[in-house]
Amino acid sequence: MPTTSARQRLKDSLSTGELIVAPGVFDGISAHLTKRTGHVAAYMTGAGVAASGFGLPDIGLVTATEMAGRAAMITDALDDVPLIADADTGYGAPMNVVRTVRSYDAAGVAAIQLEDQVFPKRCGHLPDKQVVDAAVFEQTLAAALDARSDDNLLVVARTDVRAPLGLDAAIERANRYAQAGADIIFVEAPQDAAEIERIAREVDAPLLINQVLGGMTPLQSASRLQELGYAVAIHPSNLLMQATFAMLQSLCELNGTDIAGHLPSTPADFFNMVGMADWLERDARYARKDPSWA
């Protein structure tokens, strides 16, 4: 397909060297309000889509078709504001990744984000993440790069290897993915300011950083991220958490209950509001090897 004005705007913004601040959007009104308030880009948060659109935690339960449909609706609402869209692991083998990229491409997103976790994935700020071999994810990247109809559809490569294997491995993978052709590199969940700075120094590619409220990565000012040379800062939880707080406040006012016991303080707390503990219990139950369990 021919390039879109939103894709061209994102590439132009990246070329200026100014930090792109992208709020996390997950539905029609969050997209419209992001455009109305003058933001230069938006980020379709998988966690937000899972929770708000399907009442599910961000542990790989939402399908590629559901995510692509939500992306199409959001890009329509955003119009020419570029959308960076979460596509988890690509939802399968390289041939599945091809279909995912084609669907997101048709939806009009400006960038598609893919990650090197095993499937089903987990939110990047939850414990117990597992990753595939770097060579396996390079196949995902190759499929994605070949499948896009327009080189202005950018591919964001995210590595979650910091948690299971450490920062050295994360930086090694980040540079490897950049050499494989990814347009933007996303090292998920650095755990302190020194790690954020080291990633900026040692990864030779445009960088995206994730600023999650209550997450593992300390929040940084836009000016500091600009100084370090980050290209994009996504804020996936800000709108979602504010909307959640407002709904809880209204609901508790209606029946005279105390909001304090309902307020989440971490990503895990939030996902437990939409049933994560139950889903993980099911996962553990079905993963047992002994066929005689009841």
Automatic annotation (TrEMBL):
InterPro entries the record matches: ICL/PEPM (IPR039556), Isocitrate_lyase_ph_CS (IPR018523), Pyrv/PenolPyrv_kinase-like_dom (IPR015813), Pyrv_kinase-like_dom_sf (IPR040442)
Pfam families to which the protein is assigned, alphabetical: PEP_mutase
Any one GO MF annotation of this record: lyase activity
KW Lyase (keyword) present: yes
SUPFAM superfamilies in alphabetical order: Phosphoenolpyruvate/pyruvate domain
Highest taxon listed in the record's lineage: Bacteria
Keywords recorded for this protein, A-Z: Lyase
PROSITE patterns: ISOCITRATE_LYASE (PS00161)
Protein name per the record: Isocitrate lyase/PEP mutase family protein
Gene3D superfamilies documented for this protein: Phosphoenolpyruvate-binding domains
